[in-house]
Amino acid sequence: MAARPLRIGITSFATIGGSGIVATELGVNLAQRGCEVHFISNAVPARLTTFAPNIYFHEVEVVTYTPFPHTPYSLALATKMTEVARYHELDLLHVHYAIPHAASSFLAQQMLLPRRIATVTTLHGTDITLVGQVPSFYALTKFVIERSDAVTAVSRFLEVETRRIFDIRRPIGVIPNFVDTETFTPRPELKTQCPFADAGQKVLMHVSNLRPVKNLPTVLRVFSRVRQQVPCKLVIVGDGPERGPSESLARQLGVARDVVFTGNQELIHEILAMADVLLLPSEHESFGLVALEAMSCQTPVVASNRGGLPEVIESGSTGFLHDPHDEDGQVASVLRLLREPDLAMAMGQRARAAAIERFDLRHVIDAYVRLYDELLDGGVPPRAA
Ligand code: GMT
What we know:
By secondary structure, the protein is an alpha/beta fold. It has 15 helices and 13 strands. The strands form 2 sheets. Strands 3-2-1-4-5-6-7 form a 7-stranded parallel sheet, sandwiched between helices. Helix 3 links the parallel strand 4 and strand 5. Helix 2 packs across helix 3, helix 8 crosses helix 13 and helix 11 crosses helix 14. It is globular and about 70 Å long. The two termini are 27 Å apart. The structure holds ligand GMT. Ligand GMT binds next to helix 1.
């Protein structure tokens, strides 16, 4: 790291979601290591609950003006990035999620010339697999990936997809997501006093932003079939467009009284520790941060075999993976975990060991620090237009 503390601007979505969580926890941890961290976003990031004198938040003011068909947030963000970088002498801007954040950081980098500032873009998932492929964004997504000084992806799957979809030749580093294994830890006392379930009932759980990609109908149908054989509750944590349709489906399936919708929650580490099984049958998932968080809590996961999930979970050892529409397979795996406590315990323990060994925040953040060092030691990158 440079002689004076590294000064870094971090931008992500402020809403609850894996990319925002990763960006926030990265920033907090970098600050604990002595860096000066400036979060630049439209609102305080959801998991930014730490106060420290070297953590700053800069709000992007959203301007509405009648002739604008939509608020040009990405331009306001670029302006705020430029101001913060100039007045706080930032060394680099690290953005999470390509569109619009990497476009704003590219613009800020240009506006700061002749002073050079490094830009790092971390790709998270739908910025590549969905949003970036929309014709309105394709060329811009390809451009910002090519022009960021460093690009990382959260899984090998996402790296390969990015190259394929955008015909990218430049290096893309894979730095996986991470978990604080001291916070996300087994809490047996919470399992036995779980407020969601009556005595003798098991708890199946799903945690997400309840979008179509999360495949909520399969969560509900798997639960409804498991419930016919083992007394259990389904706890759905989070909010999003699939909440209403999922509530309707729970009623149609006749299981509504055993399904709890909690909405968004802060204490995910405690809630995950209460579950007997986490269900994550996503249509695709570049990483699946919540699966890793459950593994760290020693909660067994039954998940989709798509995208980056096989890089996180070894099926049959640290969890069970199935095709997202293989309901029979998912029901069978959940029933095994509920009926065979020794299997559930051993799988949970192996999952936690894997989380500690491969995805602990302390190791993974070292990889980001190495990347920053490489980028800055070579002189701040000269990719001026
Ligand atoms: O891309 C999204 O759907 C949103 C994004 C987010 O902000 O939560 O999720 C993606 O990034 C997470 C953090 O890296 C990953 O754990 C998720 O797997 C990924 N979502 C998808 O690929 C669907």
